[in-house]
Amino acid sequence: MLEHFCECYFDLSGPILCPVLGSITPLFIPNSSIRPIRLIGLCVSLITFLYPPVPRIQFDPSTAKSQFVESLRWLPYENIHLYMGIDGLSLFFVILTTFLIPICISVGWSGMRSFGKEYITAFLIREFLMIAVSCMLDPLLFYVLSESVPIPMLG
């Protein structure tokens, strides 16, 4: 059972899906209760921060190949796959992103009186996009995700 947990924990889906699921959760909380929305955003970003150190420990810097590679048939009739993996540079960007997002949410903690739900949702969606861009090996999805990163800032 522990081996199955470790296999699920080491993959790249966790740090990518955690902010997505966390950005959906505040949508069910009323705007009047800002404290739970802030706590959910901070907790989700901290949980996402706990994922990347595990691949960093098992990362092999002696090879230039992508590691922790995952492939999922996304649009099989167009031969488009969700193809993810990390190398040394993308691992650094994933760790940097997951380190900075909780800090950004903490800095905006007191100023989040109105539009708190939108603030937290935008930060978590942005975190998802930045992590996905760093891990994406498919050129089409890399382009689409990299062009999508500025969108939450415009809201």
Automatic annotation (TrEMBL):
Give the EC number. Answer: 7.1.1.2
Reply yes or no: does the keyword Transmembrane apply.
yes
**What is the uppermost EC class here?**
translocase
Q: Name one GO molecular function term.
A: ubiquinone binding
Q: Which InterPro entries match?
A: NADH_UbQ_OxRdtase
Q: What are the transmembrane regions? A: 89-111, 123-145
Which GO biological process annotations does it have?
ATP synthesis coupled electron transport; electron transport coupled proton transport
Q: Which residues form a coiled coil?
A: none
What are the alphabetically sorted keywords of the record? Answer: Membrane, Transmembrane, Transmembrane helix, Ubiquinone
* Alphabetical list of PANTHER family matching this protein: NADH-UBIQUINONE OXIDOREDUCTASE CHAIN 4 (PTHR43507)
Its recorded name reads NADH-ubiquinone oxidoreductase chain 4
Q: What is the lineage of its organism?
A: Eukaryota, Viridiplantae, Streptophyta, Embryophyta, Tracheophyta
